[in-house]
Amino acid sequence: MTRTVKKRSVKAGLPPGSLVYLGDKGTGKAKITVIEYSEGTVREALITDLTECFPCSDPSTVTWIDVNSVHQVEMVAKLGECFKLHPLVVEDILNTDQRPKLEDYGEYLFIVFRAFSCNGGLCAMETEQISLILGPNYVLSFQEKESTVFEKIRERIRTGKGRTVKSGADYLAYSLLDTIVDNYFIVLEHLGERMEALEDALVSNPAVKILREIHLLKRDLISIRRSVWPLREVLNSLQREGTALISEPTRVYLRDVYDHAIHAIDTLETFRDMISGMLDIYLSSASNRLNEVMKVLTIIATIFIPLTFIVGVYGMNFRHMPELGWRWGYPGVLLFMAVISAFMVYYFKKKKWF
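RESULT FIELD:
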């Protein structure tokens, strides 16, 4: 299970801009995928050891540098030096529990958001922080781990299909954001299916394990909500703020992503209401089940109250009890007790108490 809060205590007392990786322990070597393209031209390279800076001086081409596994602090710091990133930006890239945000540094934009994905048939939700640097003709993307979330965008660039290769770096940044927001809906669909299955199980058999599943589902929804709500503000700022790094045609597409984010938020709010209703249903079902059990036990106890009284009377050891000498006394008492029990059962059914 992904940790909800990263351990920031390791940075206590350090000066601002200290480069310390906060996140899950990475394994293996970080990979850098470099794609330089323009209309009709695509060059791609995979780099595992960064020794020199990338030339991004040609304004007619767009360079996309995608870094997988940011646990290698030296590599991220080297890229920061190459592109003259502010030390606080590099620090935030390594701090993987950032709140989605947008910061304008004049020569580039720094964007932080979270990606969600499903692992396995039951949708064990996984999340990672993605950081973007949008420059005049380049985009830097930093991912916590190696993934294929942007593979379709790479494929479109390789084949030259779509507007990506015909547009600038701002459209590439939009495409990355759009892919992440679209993945939100994939995760929400899986969560919706889990919710429907829980609803069916809740109606048929409100077991204790269902309560645990409800709480896990609620936790996943809260995690997504904490990421989508701030992202909405980020997208709103991107489409409204007057920065020269984003062209007017791209702002139209950013408005579309903003609408998708609003749709995702509406779906999340609906799911939250449904989860609250499911908790109420579970508590009501548990209470009703307890009431049914108590009602049965109460009826049984009530039936046995007069029987216990009769047995208690005839259990007294007095010598001159008149019934002790009767030949048919014992069968008669048993018959009398059976009649009382039958009458009480008939009476309870007539009152519809069970």
